[in-house]
Structure formats: structure tokens, C-alpha cells
Amino acid sequence: MVHLGQLVLSLLPLVFWSDQQNPITNPLDTSRLHNGFARPVDVTTTKSIAIVGSGSGGLAALKTILDLPLETRAGWEVILYEQRRDVGGVWLPDPPGPLPTLPDLPESPLYPRLRTNTPHPTMTYPNFTFPPGTSLFPQWDALQQYHADYAAHYGLNEYIRLNHTVVSAQWHGHDEDGDWHIEVHAHGGDDGREVVLKRTFDHLVVATGHNHYPNIPTWNGTVAWLAGTRPGRPARQIEHSIYYRNPEAYANQSVVIVGAGASARDIAIQVSPVARVAYQSLSNGSSPAPGATVVPKPRISHFTHDAIIFEDGSVLRDVDAVLLGTGYEFRVPFLCSPHASTMDTDPYTHSTSPTAGKLTSNLRYIFPLHRHIFSIVPNFPPTALAFVGLPVLIANAPSDAAQGMFVAHAIANASLLPSQDEMMQELLEHEAILRARGYDPYRVGHRLLGGDTEAQDYQDQLVEYLKKHGVLPDDGKKYVEDWRRFARLDSQLLARAWKRVEQLREEAYWLAGVATEAEWADLMYRLADWQRDWEEEHGQVAFAGAFQAE
Ligand SMILES: Cc1cc2nc3c(=O)[nH]c(=O)nc-3n(C[C@H](O)[C@H](O)[C@H](O)COP(=O)(O)OP(=O)(O)OC[C@H]3O[C@@H](n4cnc5c(N)ncnc54)[C@H](O)[C@@H]3O)c2cc1C
Ligand SMILES: *[C@@H]1O[C@H](CO)[C@@H](O)[C@H](O)[C@H]1NC(C)=O
Ligand SMILES: *[C@@H]1O[C@H](CO)[C@@H](O)[C@H](O)[C@H]1NC(C)=O
Ligand SMILES: *[C@@H]1O[C@H](CO)[C@@H](O)[C@H](O)[C@H]1NC(C)=O
Ligand SMILES: *[C@@H]1O[C@H](CO)[C@@H](O)[C@H](O)[C@H]1NC(C)=O
Ligand SMILES: *[C@@H]1O[C@H](CO)[C@@H](O)[C@H](O)[C@H]1NC(C)=O
Ligand SMILES: *[C@@H]1O[C@H](CO)[C@@H](O)[C@H](O)[C@H]1NC(C)=O
User: Fold this and answer.
1) What is the annotated signal peptide range for this record (predicted)?
2) Is 252 in the pocket of ligand 5 (CB under 6 A)?
3) Maximum distance among all alpha carbons in the chain?
4) Fewest Cβ atoms closer than 10 Å to its Cβ: which of 24, 231, 236, 331?
5) What pLDDT, on a 0 to 100 scale, did the predictor assign at position 45?
6) 151 alpha carbon – ligand 1 mean position (Å)
7) Distance, CA 234 to ligand 5 centroid (Å)?
8) Does domain 45-213+327-417 match CATH 3.30.1540.10?
């Protein structure tokens, strides 16, 4: 497997330069140099925190740290490094121009026709709604704007360094004390030069997302298959969904879409109407995207110079393109060799949570972590390193905010966390419960499998813990409101309702006067009732569960 992150990073030139505008990160302040890494310049700094990433997770982490009582965070220095030109993470499209090709990766998997597959009120941070008039299932640009608005509204931008790539983070110290030596490359300045900043931080919050490093399966025979030429047909291709942009690229082609996750389904729905024929290759037990006109196929066995052979022995000779909706790997290159030795990445590791001497990613699961957040390893204290945004199959903005509060309060007072032994015990119990349900926790990874209920309970438990320990007021309420639970559980019903609203061109009627969180919740309840009544009378009209953007 090509180590994509390293390939990309190895292209960066190294230039040492003093960051005049930002004395905090001035690497040439030798009076405060520590093994070449500058300490915070302001001697009154009591705690320094680096957050990596300004997608949904990083913004939530920053906001929740700033929400701590002023007396608690007095003297704290918080910097968020974001490698891209703006905030928003996956919702910020690639810059204009041709897409990179392997081994280089696009900045985002976003494609122009992306509309959310969940109603936007379920994708909000607490008490920060989308603007009035926003379609219930908006296009990607509303999501990007939402994140930019959130950053502006809460004054986050002054803490954010755009065009700053964290390239390594190495702990210097032991299990109770020490600091991170962090190397950051700044780019995009007027003179186009790369700037290398090196400095220390007490805490590192990693919010780098998990839709960036494609999981690309390998099959025998792909090289010969790709090389095969056919008169009058386009060159064959095998492409991961991170490179997918427009269905027109597959017009009149014969395509095989591999997988049954969100990307594969959305691509099947978009490509099948324009393709000559679309097949969807599925594992046992998964079904093709409803509403997509695909021919289901089993898993691919291998390729030959002129055919694709499936596990049931069936053969396809006419295929032009194979589109891999095969998901992503959990990688954090700046924590790993050759940049640092904070984390091991090994898909074949024999480590387990209790035996790992070090933080480990098997590409599906980063372990051992306390509640998918804090590392429980012998090398450094748990609050030294936190992840925000790892859980999968969850409405992530509210989850990011809950995780952010948990991180902020634990950084403020590490005694809030259980002992390392207790945290490990809790993790082993969690892994045992998964095994008892027939799952391998090292394959399940950060997926919250119990459906929306488990995902909502996870967030409630984080906040409950903080209330129980007296750092959040106990208002007697659950963190995840009932309307969020209902709208996630009924998001397919709401999608069918909204599809009908659009067919009737009644968007303006339904959206009139809807502005506050309570009004959005009420709109969704009304829509669900309206749709249920209609379906009782007319039956359920099959609907793909994804919207075609115009
Ligand atoms: C195509 C697609 C469609 C989706 N649709 C939905 C949907 O309809 N509904 C839903 O609920 N969820 C959806 N999701 C889930 C979505 O991933 C989350 O909603 C969320 O946006 C992820 O946020 P994040 O902050 O965890 O990660 P990201 O958005 O990936 O942000 C991570 C940020 O970290 C930065 N970064 C990474 N490495 C470094 C580094 N070394 N130095 C500096 N910065 C770095 C990146 O540039 C990026 O900006 C979708 C995801 C994808 C990919
Ligand atoms: C929610 O947001 C509104 C509008 O910004 C604000 O007036 C209100 O105080 C907020 N409520 C809470 C509980 O934060
Ligand atoms: C970031 O870099 C881009 C070019 O890649 C540049 O256009 C933009 O102005 C830079 N932004 C900042 C804040 O430096
Ligand atoms: C791939 O091909 C090689 C050589 O032809 C063979 O030994 C191997 O078993 C094949 N692997 C799979 C998974 O089919
Ligand atoms: C579609 O492809 C077929 C098979 O190669 C070809 O015969 C046909 O002319 C194509 N149609 C269009 C509209 O390009
Ligand atoms: C998949 O299903 C087929 C037939 O339905 C069966 O023969 C095969 O063993 C199954 N494979 C797995 C991995 O479950
Ligand atoms: C830190 O948390 C512990 C455990 O909840 C508590 O006993 C202690 O008083 C807290 N310390 C401070 C300074 O708040």
C-alpha cells in the first residue's frame, strides 16, 4: 500500500523563516528554544493547545474550549492549524483546476451535485441553525457556508491559522509531564514561499477527519485489465469515489460501482441514469441503492486482461469503469513514521487495546482510546492527545460539540477523567460487548453500530459525565433533544416528504416563518405527519433517499 500522506508531504520544500506577524510562532526566538522548538513567547501562558483541522470537529473543539469560564482558561493559548484555504473541511471544495491523480489526493471528496442525505437541522451544532429558507436537504455549499458562519459568529477566526499544515507532532516527556514538539508548514503567502514553524504545545487536539485517505482494495489482474485496449471504447479506469465529480464522465459507459455505503449509493443514483449499464458489486447482505437502476453483482474475485470475474463465477467483459465506494482509512500521517513515533499504522497489527504499548491505527480503528477521544497509552498523559470527530454513523456536529466539551473540561482539570486503569477497563468492557454481539471491535472501529440510538446515547453520556462531576449545570435534560432523535430515525420519511414538497413546488410555503431551532423541529414534525398520512392512503413511493441536485 502506498503511503499517500508521506508522498504528498515529501514534496514540500523546507525553508526556515521568521513569522513576523505572529510572534507566538516565531521560531527564531532562540531565548525560548527547546531542542529547536520555540516555547510560547508570552511567559504568562499557562497552557498551550494546538487543534489540527477546521472542519466540523476542529471548529467545535475550538468553540467549546473558548466557552470555558474565563477564569478557567485565563492564560491559555489556543491555536487551530488548518492546511487548506478556508474552514469547512469536507464541505470546502477543491480549488478550481484539474483534480490531482494518484498518488496525489484531492483536498476533499466533495462533488458538485452533493446534497445532504440527512435533514440539516440534525446536522447543526446546538442552538446554531441554518439560515431561514434553507432547503431541508441542502446542497454542499450551504454546509460550507454554515461552518464559515459558525466560525465568524463565535469569533473563532482569530485563533485559526489557514494554509498551515501540521507535518509532525512528537511527545517529549513521560507519562505525567512533557510537551509536544510540533512542526507546521505555512504556505500560500504573497511570495509563495514555504515557511517552517517549530514550537511546543501542552495539548494536541486532532480533528483531521476520516474521509481523506481512500481504502483501495487490490485484486489480481487489474494491471492487465487496465492495459487492455478496445477499439472505439474509452481507456478503462478504476477510480475511488474521492475522485468522483460528475456523472457525465460516465455517459454511455458500462460501469461497476463497488460498495454499498453512502458514496457508492449516491454515485449509483447519479451515474446509473446516464450510464449504458450500471452494476453494483455488493457484499453478502447489502442491497443496491433504492431508486438507482443497477444490476446487482456479488463481490469481485479478480480481473483478467479482458474481463472482471465475480465471486459467483460470473464474468463481465464490457466494463469501461470501476468506481470504488470502498470507504476510507484512519490515518494521521503527522503522528506516524517517518514524521513522528506517536502512533503506529499497521493493518496487520497484532496489538490490542491492552497490549498496545503505543497508540495504533489498524486503518479502521485507532486504539486504545477513552470513548473515542483520549489516548490511554503509557507514553503520555491522557489529556495530552485528544481526537474529535472519530465516531462514524453519527450526526457529527452535535457529537463534535459534546466531544469538544469533554475535551475542554478534561484539559482544564485532568482529574475529571477516571484513572488510566479505569479507562482501560471501560474500553475492554465496550470491546467485549461488541464481541458478544458478534462483531470484531477491531473491524467495527469507530462505527456506532447500534443505529441512531447508540449514537445519541454516546453524546448524552459524555455530557452526563460532565454534569455528574459538576462542571456543567445539571438542567435535568438530555443533551440530544427529542427532535434530533426523531429526525435522525425518520430521516428517510422526511426525505420522501421533502421530495414531495419539491415536486409540488411548496418549499416556500413550508419554510415560511421557520427560523429558530424550535421552529425547524416543528417543521420536521409537521412534515413527518403530513407524509405519514399521505403514505397511509397512497402507499410509500420508492425514493432513493438521496436528492439529485440541479
Ligand atoms: C461526501 C460526503 C458527504 C457527507 N454527507 C453527510 C450528510 O449528508 N450528513 C451527515 O450527517 N454527514 C455527512 N458527511 C459526514 C461528514 O464527514 C461530517 O459531517 C463532517 O463534516 C466531518 O468533519 P471533520 O471535522 O471530522 O472532518 P473534515 O471535514 O475532514 O475536516 C478535517 C480538516 O482537517 C484538515 N487537516 C487534515 N490534516 C491536517 C494537517 N496535517 N494539518 C492541518 N490541517 C489538516 C483538513 O484540511 C480538513 O479541513 C459526509 C461526508 C462526506 C465525505
Ligand atoms: C441561542 O441562540 C440565540 C440566538 O443567537 C440566543 O439569543 C440564545 O441566547 C441562545 N440560547 C442558548 C441557550 O445559548
Ligand atoms: C492561502 O493560500 C491561498 C493559495 O493557495 C491564497 O490564495 C490565500 O490567500 C491564502 N490564505 C491565507 C489566509 O493566507
Ligand atoms: C493471484 O494470482 C497469483 C498468481 O497467479 C496466485 O498465486 C494468487 O493465489 C492469486 N490471488 C488471488 C487472491 O486470487
Ligand atoms: C454508446 O456506446 C455504444 C457501444 O460502444 C455505441 O455503439 C454507441 O454509438 C454509443 N452511443 C452514443 C450516444 O455515444
Ligand atoms: C455469500 O453468499 C453465498 C451464497 O449466497 C455463500 O455461498 C457465501 O458463503 C457467502 N459468503 C460470505 C462471506 O458470507
Ligand atoms: C478537578 O476535578 C476533581 C474531580 O472531579 C475535583 O475533585 C477537583 O476539585 C477539581 N479541581 C478543580 C481545581 O476544579
Assistant:
1) 1-17
2) yes
3) 77
4) 231
5) 87
6) 15
7) 11
8) no
Q: What's the CA-to-centroid distance between 466 and ligand 6, angstroms?
A: 46
Task: Name the pLDDT band for 491 (thresholds 50, 70, 90).
Answer: very high
Unique residue bearing C-alpha cell 429526525: 487
- State if pTM tops 0.85: yes
Using CB distances shorter than 6 Å, the residues near ligand 3 are 85, 162-163, 188
Strands 76-81 and 47-52 turn out to be parallel
Domains 45-213+327-417 and 216-326 fall in the same CATH topology: yes
Report how far apart, in Å, the C-alpha atoms of 379 and of each of 46, 180, 201 are: 22, 12, 16
Is the pLDDT reported for residue 545 higher than 70?
Answer: no
Q: What is the domain partition of the chain in residue ranges? A: 1-37, 45-213+327-417, 216-326, 490-546
272: left (phi over 0), alpha (psi -120 to 50) or beta: alpha
Residue 219 Cα to ligand 4 midpoint, Å, equals: 9
141 versus 193: the higher-pLDDT residue is 141
Q: How far is Cα 234 from Cα 231, in angstroms, rounded to an integer?
A: 8
* Secondary structure E strands in 226-303: 237-240, 254-258, 277-281, 295-297, 300-303
Of 205, 180, 167, which is closest to residue 387 (Cα–Cα)? 205
Q: What share of the chain is helix, strand, coil (3-state, %, to 5)?
A: 35, 20, 50
Give the pLDDT of residue 69.
96
